[in-house]
User: Fold these one by one.
Assistant:
Number 1:
Amino acid sequence: MKKLTHLILIALTIISCSTEETLTPSTNFNADEFKKSEEANKIAEEVNSIITKDYEEDANNKSASMSVPYLPDCVTRTYTTNGTTHEVEFDFGTIGCTMPNGNVITGKIHYSYTGDLTAETKTITYTLINFTFNSIDVEGSDEIYHIRNNTNGNPQSTIVVDFTLTWPSGLVGYRTGSIIREWIEGSDTLLDWTDDVFSISGNWTTTFDNGSSYSATIATNLRRELSCWYFVSGSINFNYNGLLFTGDYGDGACDNNATLTFQNGNTINILL
């Protein structure tokens, strides 16, 4: 990462010397903070994928006891209900449970909802308990408004995001926003993660305790394939401490490459 940051700083210096419109010191791009903002995206995506997939599968089977073949054996699922309120808790343990896409999780996700399990719409509330994601501590208690069939006939979730993240370095970030995730492929094969694809829109802000802030609005819907760590296509408009730029996430290939284009026309490639 140090090498990547160094190369980016060199690239920005070269660019600034070749154009009259330069990036001022007060708005310099920080590659490390950009990467951390992207990590917050992955966390929100993983948590909500686990919850919505589980909710759809449980509703499909209509059972109070369900195995989780789409999750590794290190995850324990507990379901309780009084007939009206339904609660599910995933326990990932304390050592580190590796997910199918390689992310490592500890702690618990607890979610609940009320009423008929097979209802067309449902508000799901969830809480993260002693939760870590790739060694990042994550705290949050949020809501998901879930539609079983949207106008395209696909499951769709609107997620209210409100996370606090603490990285091993001690940096703290606060993520708030609203995200819409349409499940465009794989919802008919609930026990298989590998074919799940989501189209994502929305906006969010990541504010760090050092005063830096990333605001983001999805310009072209992001494509998330659960078999991949990264967004494989789509674009986001960013505002980083007043510095405006657009991130392009590619043409569909599963890789960690993104292209950032700044308002003055400067373009850099970055590894996420």
Number 2:
Amino acid sequence: MTLTREEIIFLIVFAVNLVISVLYLAYGIFLSASVRARKRKGEDEVLRDNRRTYLIRFLVMVMCPVIGPLFFLTAQILYLTVFRFGVNLDDVTFSKDRVDTQVKADEEQERNIIPVEEALIINDKKSLRTAMMSIIRGETEGSLASIAMALDSDDSETAHYAASVLSDKLNGFRMNVRKLYSQIHEEPEQTGIEEQLIDYMNEFLGQQIFTQLEQNGFVRMMAEVAENLYEKDASRLNAGHYEGVCLRLLEIADFEEAEKWCTRLAEQYPQELSAYTCRLKLYFMTRNRTAFFQTLDNLKKTEVVIDNETLEMIRIFS
């Protein structure tokens, strides 16, 4: 079979392209990897492409003859000639003085924003999108529960905003919890990390935005961290830590563990309102009428400052 002139040229170009691609792959796997290993051994960190990158580029060069090699060659030339030089910051100075900028509130915009819950009820897409964008631009950690409600919105754009923010925040929470939890086991004598992790987990778990299974797992992890800190130095646990652990355990209906922490809270901080409210919630959920009214009577006899919610509960049950 006789090949045409065009076919012969194509085969030659393909063969040359294949040889170049194979040489490039061999350079990346053997030479570049060994250079990177030597640099690492000498404690001189240098950014290098890994083997997988060279393999992917090899496949692109084989499937795209001429164009693939030219593309990577052009990119390398631009890197060496344009982007490789560092930025000269000798003339740039940074002031260490902190300045708090007071920005006047946009009262007109605030008057036109309704809560996410109301926008969902009346199905007002414009108001819902405005409320979502206002939440996203601010601190979202304390508004995740409202954002989660927007997932059920009929407006696909609003649901997309909510899903993006929640996915990013929850993945960040999971990564940070694993990181801090690992540090606790690596540094068993350190207590500051436990306090940080309890506060961090309580802020997220209190909004109940995880699935029931994942919520239960994180709450038990939070109780485990608090238990470790209690065994090391119970004085480092403040009333807020105790209350957070008690409430999260009550939410997952772990009443036995919750009662243990309620008792510890009452013993260590008997003059705190949470020492009574946590037990009242526990006894109410477990339908322990005797203990509930006994705790309520004890609260009325103390000089503990009572908030409006607890005062209303006293009026109802008195």
Number 3:
Amino acid sequence: MSKGLAKRIIPCLDVKDGQTVKGTNFVNLRSAGDPVELGKAYSQAGADELVFLDITASSEGRKTFTDVVTRVAQEINIPFTVGGGINALADVERLLYAGADKVSVNSAALKRPELISEITSKFGSQVCVCAIDAKFDEGKWMCYLNGGRIPTNRGLFEWAKEAEERGAGEILFTSMNHDGVKTGYANEALARLSDELNIPIIASGGAGTMEHFRDAFFLGKADAALAASVFHFGEIKISELKQYLDTEGINVRLCL
């Protein structure tokens, strides 16, 4: 593996009703704590970025909790991506003003792909992360809407390619099959995305051990690995994870 750009470790706050939650395969949610406190702790622990997803904003047809975003942003000093219920440029403006560095679009972009082009032409590619929730079913990876609730007829790879062509700066790919199961990331799909696209790929769904992160970088060729429950419940500490990855020959920004 080249020692190029440092691989990023990204905790994810899935937020519902103002609280951080975590489920398995997108269901059976349990509370994981206050997002402001968690965000602050991750920033201090050496996380490279933080992702905040208001996971029911799209299905409930409302906007992301701007006040919570503002409070998290005030406590952290790392890049901050926010997603959930973003349907228009006004939503992006509101979240950037609240302290987000990037926005993550998912359901709204699948329904109206022009949204990606609009965001990137106004704010730049670096602001737009295209999040894709996909499930492997009957030999194909297919995309889902509204936090994994609604299947679509879009395939993962062709949609990711279109998102890149429309200007998305990164792809955040969550395997619904692997989410919360802690058996490792969807490395074959990640590697194919990495081979077919020229923008960074963030791996999501399946982290259970430090080896899973290593495999996402080596086998999955991912640029970043996102996880939630293993960090929230203290199963893996970010500083120890980075030390481990460093000894495995993976270029990471070590915690001071």
Number 4:
Amino acid sequence: MRKYELMFIVKPDLEETAIKKEAETLKKVLTDRKCNILEEKAIGQRELAYEMNKYKNGYYFLFVAEANNEAISEFDRLARLNENILRHLIVRIDD
């Protein structure tokens, strides 16, 4: 398994419980596919560098995980389909 950083931004107009639920849903995608979550950070609400879908702020989350290709592909697919996720980024970390 390879090491990845997965960052995503959730819409700021959701309730706090809904924001946490979105993060837990994406975390569950990884853990259900036997990935190890090495680090999990809820960075919080930050101003975006530029406006996205009429939003100027967003809630940032970061996962560092050892994952396989199947888990990363599914994470990417679900993050694209989820209308509450403004953006996501997946970076492979070379050791």
